[in-house]
Amino acid sequence: MPSDDYYKTVFKSPSTKVVRNRNKNSACGYTGCKSEESAGRPRFPVCASCKHTRYCSREHQVAAWKSHKAQCKRYQERDEAEGIRAALGLLTPHQIVDNLLEDFVHLHESTFDELANFIYHVNLPKLLAEQVDFSRVTVNVYLNYLPDCEGNPAKAFEIETIALKEVGSESLSEKVKKYRDDLKRSRQNDPTFIQGVLCSYHVAGYESPLQPTGLKTTNWVIIYKPHAQFKLEEEWNQQMLKMVQGGIVLRKVRDEEGPRKYRWVPGFLFKGDSKWTWKAIPPDLADRFSMNLPPVEYWGRQKITTFLYAPGATSAWVAPAGFLWESND
Ligand SMILES: [Zn+2]
Ligand SMILES: [Zn+2]
After folding, report:
1. Segment 138-187, tens digit of pLDDT
2. Domain ranges of the chain
3. Most buried one in 106, 246, 277, 308, CB count within 10 A?
4. Which helix (H) or strand (E) is 258 found in, with range?
5. Are 79 and 13 in contact, with CB atoms under 8 Å apart?
6. pTM for the structure as a whole
7. Which residues have C-beta under 5 Å from ligand 1, the single-atom ion?
Protein backbone atom coordinates (compact mmCIF):
# COMPACT_ATOMS: atom_id res chain seq x y z
CA MET A 1 0.00 0.00 0.00
CA PRO A 2 1.25 3.50 -0.71
CA SER A 3 1.90 5.47 2.45
CA ASP A 4 -0.94 7.49 3.94
CA ASP A 5 0.93 10.70 3.24
CA TYR A 6 0.59 10.18 -0.44
CA TYR A 7 -3.14 10.62 -0.20
CA LYS A 8 -2.97 13.98 1.47
CA THR A 9 -3.06 16.36 -1.37
CA VAL A 10 -3.74 19.87 -0.29
CA PHE A 11 -5.55 22.52 -2.24
CA LYS A 12 -5.68 26.19 -1.45
CA SER A 13 -8.83 28.20 -1.17
CA PRO A 14 -11.50 27.26 -3.69
CA SER A 15 -11.53 30.77 -5.03
CA THR A 16 -7.88 30.95 -5.99
CA LYS A 17 -6.30 29.21 -8.87
CA VAL A 18 -5.00 26.39 -7.09
CA VAL A 19 -4.87 22.89 -7.63
CA ARG A 20 -1.43 21.71 -8.21
CA ASN A 21 -2.43 18.19 -7.38
CA ARG A 22 -1.89 16.27 -10.50
CA ASN A 23 -3.08 12.82 -10.98
CA LYS A 24 0.24 12.53 -12.65
CA ASN A 25 3.46 12.64 -10.71
CA SER A 26 5.64 15.72 -10.98
CA ALA A 27 8.87 15.54 -12.91
CA CYS A 28 12.08 17.16 -11.74
CA GLY A 29 12.08 20.82 -12.79
CA TYR A 30 15.64 20.66 -14.08
CA THR A 31 15.69 20.36 -17.85
CA GLY A 32 17.63 17.32 -18.79
CA CYS A 33 16.74 15.33 -15.66
CA LYS A 34 14.36 12.49 -16.34
CA SER A 35 13.46 11.79 -12.70
CA GLU A 36 9.81 11.60 -11.83
CA GLU A 37 7.95 11.17 -8.58
CA SER A 38 6.34 7.82 -7.96
CA ALA A 39 3.29 6.93 -5.96
CA GLY A 40 3.93 5.66 -2.49
CA ARG A 41 7.26 7.48 -2.22
CA PRO A 42 7.72 10.92 -0.73
CA ARG A 43 7.14 13.76 -3.14
CA PHE A 44 10.10 15.73 -4.48
CA PRO A 45 10.92 18.81 -2.42
CA VAL A 46 9.22 21.92 -3.75
CA CYS A 47 10.84 25.30 -4.44
CA ALA A 48 10.40 27.21 -1.18
CA SER A 49 9.79 30.52 -2.95
CA CYS A 50 7.05 29.68 -5.42
CA LYS A 51 5.86 26.37 -3.91
CA HIS A 52 5.29 25.22 -7.42
CA THR A 53 8.29 23.62 -9.12
CA ARG A 54 9.72 20.39 -7.71
CA TYR A 55 13.24 18.99 -7.91
CA CYS A 56 14.62 15.52 -7.35
CA SER A 57 17.68 16.91 -5.56
CA ARG A 58 19.25 20.03 -4.14
CA GLU A 59 21.87 19.87 -6.91
CA HIS A 60 19.24 20.03 -9.62
CA GLN A 61 17.46 22.90 -7.93
CA VAL A 62 20.70 24.85 -7.87
CA ALA A 63 21.44 23.94 -11.47
CA ALA A 64 17.96 25.01 -12.59
CA TRP A 65 17.87 28.28 -10.69
CA LYS A 66 19.17 30.49 -13.48
CA SER A 67 16.36 29.44 -15.78
CA HIS A 68 13.72 29.08 -13.05
CA LYS A 69 14.26 32.49 -11.47
CA ALA A 70 12.00 34.51 -13.75
CA GLN A 71 9.25 31.88 -13.77
CA CYS A 72 9.49 31.60 -9.98
CA LYS A 73 8.82 35.32 -9.63
CA ARG A 74 5.83 35.11 -11.97
CA TYR A 75 4.31 32.25 -9.97
CA GLN A 76 4.71 34.19 -6.74
CA GLU A 77 3.21 37.37 -8.14
CA ARG A 78 0.29 35.53 -9.64
CA ASP A 79 -0.50 33.55 -6.50
CA GLU A 80 -0.12 36.58 -4.26
CA ALA A 81 -2.35 38.75 -6.41
CA GLU A 82 -4.99 36.07 -6.66
CA GLY A 83 -4.77 35.18 -3.00
CA ILE A 84 -5.24 38.78 -1.89
CA ARG A 85 -8.13 39.37 -4.20
CA ALA A 86 -9.76 36.11 -3.13
CA ALA A 87 -9.28 36.86 0.57
CA LEU A 88 -10.88 40.26 0.13
CA GLY A 89 -13.75 38.76 -1.77
CA LEU A 90 -12.77 40.77 -4.80
CA LEU A 91 -12.93 38.02 -7.36
CA THR A 92 -15.80 38.43 -9.75
CA PRO A 93 -18.21 35.51 -10.10
CA HIS A 94 -16.70 35.03 -13.54
CA GLN A 95 -13.18 34.69 -12.08
CA ILE A 96 -14.37 32.26 -9.41
CA VAL A 97 -15.99 30.02 -12.00
CA ASP A 98 -12.90 30.33 -14.19
CA ASN A 99 -10.68 29.21 -11.30
CA LEU A 100 -13.00 26.37 -10.38
CA LEU A 101 -12.94 25.24 -13.99
CA GLU A 102 -9.17 24.96 -14.03
CA ASP A 103 -9.18 22.98 -10.79
CA PHE A 104 -12.05 20.76 -11.88
CA VAL A 105 -10.25 19.79 -15.07
CA HIS A 106 -6.96 19.10 -13.28
CA LEU A 107 -8.67 17.05 -10.59
CA HIS A 108 -10.59 14.86 -12.98
CA GLU A 109 -7.79 14.61 -15.53
CA SER A 110 -7.56 10.81 -15.34
CA THR A 111 -11.31 10.40 -15.53
CA PHE A 112 -11.55 12.68 -18.53
CA ASP A 113 -8.76 10.69 -20.19
CA GLU A 114 -10.94 7.59 -19.89
CA LEU A 115 -14.05 9.37 -21.12
CA ALA A 116 -12.23 10.86 -24.11
CA ASN A 117 -10.71 7.50 -25.05
CA PHE A 118 -14.11 5.89 -24.81
CA ILE A 119 -15.89 8.42 -27.00
CA TYR A 120 -13.08 8.32 -29.55
CA HIS A 121 -13.20 4.56 -29.92
CA VAL A 122 -16.97 4.32 -29.88
CA ASN A 123 -17.15 6.83 -32.71
CA LEU A 124 -14.23 5.47 -34.69
CA PRO A 125 -16.24 3.35 -37.16
CA LYS A 126 -18.40 6.38 -37.94
CA LEU A 127 -15.38 8.65 -38.31
CA LEU A 128 -13.68 6.17 -40.62
CA ALA A 129 -16.84 5.90 -42.73
CA GLU A 130 -17.03 9.68 -42.99
CA GLN A 131 -13.33 9.84 -43.93
CA VAL A 132 -12.63 12.30 -41.17
CA ASP A 133 -9.16 13.83 -40.97
CA PHE A 134 -8.06 12.43 -37.61
CA SER A 135 -5.37 15.02 -37.12
CA ARG A 136 -8.16 17.61 -36.81
CA VAL A 137 -10.32 15.73 -34.34
CA THR A 138 -10.89 17.40 -30.97
CA VAL A 139 -12.90 16.43 -27.92
CA ASN A 140 -15.34 19.03 -26.65
CA VAL A 141 -16.74 18.80 -23.14
CA TYR A 142 -19.75 21.02 -22.39
CA LEU A 143 -20.27 21.83 -18.73
CA ASN A 144 -22.84 23.60 -16.57
CA TYR A 145 -21.67 25.43 -13.47
CA LEU A 146 -23.30 24.24 -10.24
CA PRO A 147 -23.50 27.26 -7.91
CA ASP A 148 -24.46 25.07 -4.93
CA CYS A 149 -21.16 23.13 -5.09
CA GLU A 150 -20.04 25.01 -1.94
CA GLY A 151 -16.73 25.79 -3.55
CA ASN A 152 -15.71 22.16 -3.95
CA PRO A 153 -13.70 22.21 -7.17
CA ALA A 154 -14.29 18.47 -7.69
CA LYS A 155 -18.04 18.91 -8.08
CA ALA A 156 -18.36 22.42 -9.42
CA PHE A 157 -19.72 21.39 -12.82
CA GLU A 158 -22.03 18.88 -14.37
CA ILE A 159 -21.24 17.38 -17.73
CA GLU A 160 -23.81 18.24 -20.32
CA THR A 161 -22.23 16.43 -23.30
CA ILE A 162 -18.91 15.15 -24.53
CA ALA A 163 -18.55 15.29 -28.27
CA LEU A 164 -15.93 14.64 -30.89
CA LYS A 165 -15.50 17.37 -33.42
CA GLU A 166 -13.53 17.73 -36.59
CA VAL A 167 -12.35 21.31 -36.75
CA GLY A 168 -11.28 23.19 -39.84
CA SER A 169 -7.51 23.16 -40.26
CA GLU A 170 -7.51 26.96 -40.07
CA SER A 171 -8.94 26.85 -36.54
CA LEU A 172 -5.97 24.88 -35.22
CA SER A 173 -3.22 27.29 -34.26
CA GLU A 174 0.38 26.68 -35.25
CA LYS A 175 1.17 26.09 -31.59
CA VAL A 176 -1.46 23.37 -31.33
CA LYS A 177 -0.24 21.70 -34.50
CA LYS A 178 3.35 21.78 -33.32
CA TYR A 179 2.44 20.31 -29.94
CA ARG A 180 0.45 17.55 -31.59
CA ASP A 181 3.33 16.67 -33.91
CA ASP A 182 5.88 16.74 -31.07
CA LEU A 183 3.67 14.42 -29.06
CA LYS A 184 3.49 12.00 -31.96
CA ARG A 185 7.25 12.07 -32.42
CA SER A 186 7.93 11.48 -28.73
CA ARG A 187 5.66 8.43 -28.75
CA GLN A 188 6.85 6.88 -31.98
CA ASN A 189 8.17 3.80 -30.21
CA ASP A 190 4.99 3.23 -28.26
CA PRO A 191 2.84 0.68 -30.14
CA THR A 192 -0.20 1.58 -28.06
CA PHE A 193 -0.22 5.25 -28.99
CA ILE A 194 -2.78 6.45 -31.50
CA GLN A 195 -2.73 10.23 -31.30
CA GLY A 196 -2.84 13.26 -29.05
CA VAL A 197 -6.19 15.01 -29.12
CA LEU A 198 -6.90 18.49 -27.87
CA CYS A 199 -9.70 18.43 -25.33
CA SER A 200 -11.58 21.65 -24.62
CA TYR A 201 -13.97 22.30 -21.76
CA HIS A 202 -16.67 24.93 -22.18
CA VAL A 203 -18.93 26.35 -19.49
CA ALA A 204 -22.42 27.23 -20.70
CA GLY A 205 -23.78 30.68 -20.01
CA TYR A 206 -20.47 32.49 -19.73
CA GLU A 207 -20.26 33.81 -23.24
CA SER A 208 -20.38 37.56 -23.78
CA PRO A 209 -19.89 39.90 -26.74
CA LEU A 210 -16.40 40.56 -25.42
CA GLN A 211 -15.62 36.92 -24.89
CA PRO A 212 -17.62 35.00 -27.46
CA THR A 213 -15.94 31.70 -26.69
CA GLY A 214 -16.89 32.04 -23.04
CA LEU A 215 -15.17 30.26 -20.19
CA LYS A 216 -12.98 27.61 -21.63
CA THR A 217 -9.86 25.65 -20.83
CA THR A 218 -8.00 22.97 -22.75
CA ASN A 219 -5.69 20.04 -22.18
CA TRP A 220 -4.27 17.18 -24.20
CA VAL A 221 -5.56 13.66 -24.09
CA ILE A 222 -3.63 10.69 -25.38
CA ILE A 223 -5.70 8.21 -27.33
CA TYR A 224 -4.47 4.65 -26.91
CA LYS A 225 -5.32 1.43 -28.63
CA PRO A 226 -7.75 -0.56 -26.52
CA HIS A 227 -6.36 -3.49 -24.64
CA ALA A 228 -7.25 -6.70 -26.42
CA GLN A 229 -8.44 -8.42 -23.29
CA PHE A 230 -11.05 -5.87 -22.37
CA LYS A 231 -14.23 -4.78 -23.95
CA LEU A 232 -15.50 -1.33 -24.67
CA GLU A 233 -18.22 -1.03 -22.10
CA GLU A 234 -20.84 1.66 -21.95
CA GLU A 235 -21.27 0.73 -18.29
CA TRP A 236 -17.74 1.89 -17.49
CA ASN A 237 -18.33 5.09 -19.34
CA GLN A 238 -21.44 5.72 -17.27
CA GLN A 239 -19.51 4.98 -14.13
CA MET A 240 -16.79 7.46 -15.03
CA LEU A 241 -19.46 10.11 -15.61
CA LYS A 242 -21.04 9.31 -12.25
CA MET A 243 -17.66 9.68 -10.57
CA VAL A 244 -17.24 13.19 -11.90
CA GLN A 245 -20.79 14.13 -10.94
CA GLY A 246 -20.34 12.71 -7.47
CA GLY A 247 -17.13 14.65 -6.91
CA ILE A 248 -15.11 11.44 -6.75
CA VAL A 249 -11.54 12.08 -7.82
CA LEU A 250 -9.57 9.15 -9.17
CA ARG A 251 -5.85 8.95 -8.69
CA LYS A 252 -3.70 6.37 -10.34
CA VAL A 253 -1.33 4.82 -7.83
CA ARG A 254 1.34 2.24 -8.20
CA ASP A 255 1.26 -0.74 -5.88
CA GLU A 256 4.37 -1.35 -3.87
CA GLU A 257 4.32 -5.01 -4.73
CA GLY A 258 4.51 -6.27 -8.26
CA PRO A 259 6.18 -4.81 -11.30
CA ARG A 260 4.64 -1.45 -12.17
CA LYS A 261 1.13 -2.44 -11.33
CA TYR A 262 -1.24 0.50 -11.26
CA ARG A 263 -4.71 0.81 -9.89
CA TRP A 264 -7.31 3.48 -9.40
CA VAL A 265 -7.88 4.93 -5.97
CA PRO A 266 -11.15 6.86 -5.60
CA GLY A 267 -11.25 9.75 -3.15
CA PHE A 268 -13.16 12.83 -2.06
CA LEU A 269 -12.09 16.37 -1.28
CA PHE A 270 -12.54 17.46 2.34
CA LYS A 271 -12.84 21.10 3.27
CA GLY A 272 -10.56 22.71 5.82
CA ASP A 273 -10.35 26.37 6.81
CA SER A 274 -8.88 27.51 3.57
CA LYS A 275 -7.90 24.27 1.91
CA TRP A 276 -9.31 21.21 0.31
CA THR A 277 -7.64 17.88 0.98
CA TRP A 278 -7.94 14.79 -1.14
CA LYS A 279 -8.42 11.59 0.82
CA ALA A 280 -8.90 8.10 -0.44
CA ILE A 281 -12.21 6.43 0.28
CA PRO A 282 -11.48 3.55 2.67
CA PRO A 283 -11.47 0.30 0.67
CA ASP A 284 -14.42 -1.19 2.55
CA LEU A 285 -16.47 1.90 1.85
CA ALA A 286 -15.41 1.85 -1.77
CA ASP A 287 -16.74 -1.70 -1.94
CA ARG A 288 -20.02 -0.63 -0.46
CA PHE A 289 -20.35 1.99 -3.18
CA SER A 290 -19.80 -1.00 -5.47
CA MET A 291 -17.16 0.86 -7.34
CA ASN A 292 -16.17 -1.69 -9.84
CA LEU A 293 -13.51 0.39 -11.54
CA PRO A 294 -12.13 -0.64 -14.87
CA PRO A 295 -8.57 -1.89 -14.78
CA VAL A 296 -6.10 0.91 -15.33
CA GLU A 297 -4.66 -0.85 -18.34
CA TYR A 298 -8.00 -0.81 -20.13
CA TRP A 299 -6.51 1.32 -22.86
CA GLY A 300 -3.13 0.11 -24.04
CA ARG A 301 -0.94 2.13 -21.76
CA GLN A 302 1.41 -0.69 -21.00
CA LYS A 303 3.46 -2.50 -23.51
CA ILE A 304 1.10 -4.96 -25.10
CA THR A 305 1.65 -7.02 -28.14
CA THR A 306 -1.81 -8.32 -28.93
CA PHE A 307 -4.24 -6.24 -30.90
CA LEU A 308 -7.14 -7.23 -33.00
CA TYR A 309 -6.73 -6.31 -36.61
CA ALA A 310 -9.48 -6.29 -39.16
CA PRO A 311 -8.57 -8.24 -42.30
CA GLY A 312 -6.48 -6.03 -44.53
CA ALA A 313 -6.38 -3.13 -42.08
CA THR A 314 -3.09 -1.64 -41.01
CA SER A 315 -4.34 -0.17 -37.76
CA ALA A 316 -6.12 -1.89 -34.92
CA TRP A 317 -9.80 -2.31 -35.47
CA VAL A 318 -12.03 -1.06 -32.74
CA ALA A 319 -15.22 -2.67 -31.62
CA PRO A 320 -18.49 -0.81 -31.27
CA ALA A 321 -19.92 -0.40 -27.78
CA GLY A 322 -20.95 -3.66 -26.19
CA PHE A 323 -18.75 -5.78 -28.40
CA LEU A 324 -16.84 -8.54 -26.61
CA TRP A 325 -13.20 -8.81 -27.43
CA GLU A 326 -11.81 -12.22 -28.13
CA SER A 327 -8.14 -12.41 -27.51
CA ASN A 328 -5.86 -13.38 -30.39
CA ASP A 329 -3.36 -15.39 -28.44
ZN1 LIG B 1 16.54 16.05 -11.16
ZN1 LIG C 1 10.34 28.65 -7.54
Report:
1. 999 999 999 988 888 889 999 999 988 888 777 788 888 888 888 888 88
2. 92-298
3. 106
4. none
5. no
6. 0.70
7. 28, 30, 33, 35, 56, 60
